[in-house]
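Researcher: Sequence recovery benchmark, item below. Answer with residues only.
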């Protein structure tokens, strides 16, 4: 009997005992291609020598110093690295231990910013349906995933949700991308006006929607319009790049491809590549200066923020990405993976959509392609695909069910940035077999 309560109370999981390159190995000696990077985390794969070496070095130097007493050279260097590569305008980094902590901190920064500016009436957060921002209470409140929130509703702050920019599900037949971008962004302006422009703190969105809707990129110009609306009403734009950021879509930050700079940006997952738990909030000079001129500090903090081991891992991961020019591989292998997915699935009767950017892709399953009718959520096709994939030594990230009124099943692919062509081909081959087998196993 396991005393570890992690996933479901009774699930039997393989025991991971090793990892090298893009593979994980279980206690029975079976190898799995980590085509999901865990949950879009393992950007350098497993056991990377540069990170191992950096962690050994840091452990021999200093593992931990509390931020109430010290800063550390390694945390300072990581912050310098993050800001050196951040979109112009983001000038400070706040280091935490993961994605939810980053989102919590960003929301509190947004609120404190307006308090410092003498606008305490500003209190509303607007976010989007079919989104996920973490499992701590404020992040959960911001996420638009009703089934995750249901049990905890009495504990959640009020958050207001609009539809995401999700072309496959929400772009009307015959509607141009431009018109759809305008309509999707207008939902934000309508919501701000409904709530009262002087009462809204921030709009929070994933630049490319992650697991909840499945690697959904925005249509062109959506975020430029969102940025303009936020500016019009003095509302802060928070982009959550915990999953889609740090190189996953082919640029270091996904918002670079949208031509917008947020006021606050959250990153995690690929920041430390899974070698240590770490996340960060990158914030604008204006927000930092409001704290500096006001109460003098951001009223927040965690015991492990800026942890030296975590900073060492993240710095080694980020320096390796630059040194080995891995973003070029993300673009090249992303294109190759996309091409192979399209060859394998474009005519598949039950694949409705293949979407994503860089090494961040999803395939969505449908019962009927022309009507986009999903499978009955009770069949849990996504879970069956994951099971069949695991049986074939392949990790894919499943999601499905009814999320804020939209039904659907998809799996997410987010392999390490070091993946090679032959490995990407193997991913698609195993995935194809897993999908066919899962669908064949559905009740007639
Ligand atoms: N934000 C997004 C977009 C995420 O995908 C996730 C996790 O999947 C989080 C926040 C929460 O991150 P963590 O699980 O590290 O707390």
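Model:
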């Amino acid at each position: 009997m396991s005393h570890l309560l992690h996933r479901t109370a009774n699930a039997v999981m393989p025991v991971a005992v090793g990892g090298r390159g893009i593979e994980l190995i279980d206690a029975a000696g079976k190898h799995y291609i980590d085509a999901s990077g865990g949950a879009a985390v393992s950007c350098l794969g497993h056991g990377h020598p540069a990170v191992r070496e950096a962690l050994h070095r840091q452990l021999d130097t200093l593992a931990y110093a509390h931020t109430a007493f010290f800063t550390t050279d390694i945390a300072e260097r990581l912050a310098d690295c993050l800001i050196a590569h951040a979109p112009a305008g983001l000038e400070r980094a706040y280091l935490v231990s993961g994605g939810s902590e980053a989102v919590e901190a960003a929301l509190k920064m947004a609120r404190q910013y307006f308090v410092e500016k003498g606008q305490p009436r500003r209190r509303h957060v607007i976010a989007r349906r079919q989104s996920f921002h973490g499992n701590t209470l404020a992040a959960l409140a911001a996420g638009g995933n009703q089934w995750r929130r249901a049990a905890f509703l009495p504990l959640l702050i009020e958050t207001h949700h609009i539809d995401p920019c999700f072309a496959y599900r929400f772009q009307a037949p015959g509607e141009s991308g431009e018109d759809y971008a305008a309509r999707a962004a207008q939902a934000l302006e309508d919501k701000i006006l409904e709530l009262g422009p002087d009462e809204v703190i921030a709009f929070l969105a994933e630049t490319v929607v992650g697991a909840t809707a499945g690697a959904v990129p925005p249509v062109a110009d959506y975020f430029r319009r969102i940025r303009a609306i936020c500016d019009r009403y003095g509302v802060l734009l928070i982009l959550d790049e915990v999953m889609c950021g740090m190189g996953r879509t082919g640029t270091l930050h996904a918002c670079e491809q949208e031509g917008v700079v947020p006021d606050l940006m959250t990153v995690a997952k690929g920041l430390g590549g899974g070698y240590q738990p770490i996340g960060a909030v990158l914030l604008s000079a204006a927000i930092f200066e409001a704290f500096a001129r006001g109460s003098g500090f951001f009223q927040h903090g965690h015991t492990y923020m800026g942890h030296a081991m975590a900073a060492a891992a993240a710095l080694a991961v980020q320096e390796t990405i630059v040194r080995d020019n891995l973003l070029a591989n993300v673009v090249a292998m992303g294109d190759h993976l996309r091409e192979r997915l399209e060859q394998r699935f474009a005519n598949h009767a039950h694949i409705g959509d293949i979407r994503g950017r860089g090494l961040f892709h999803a395939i969505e399953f449908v019962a009927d392609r022309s009507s986009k009718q999903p499978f009955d959520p009770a069949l849990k096709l996504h879970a069956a695909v994951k099971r069949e994939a695991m049986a074939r030594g392949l990790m894919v990230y499943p999601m499905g069910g009814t999320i804020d009124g939209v039904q659907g099943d998809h799996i997410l692919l987010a392999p390490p940035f070091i993946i090679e062509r032959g490995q990407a081909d193997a991913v698609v081959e195993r995935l194809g077999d897993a999908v066919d087998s899962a669908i064949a196993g559905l009740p007639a």
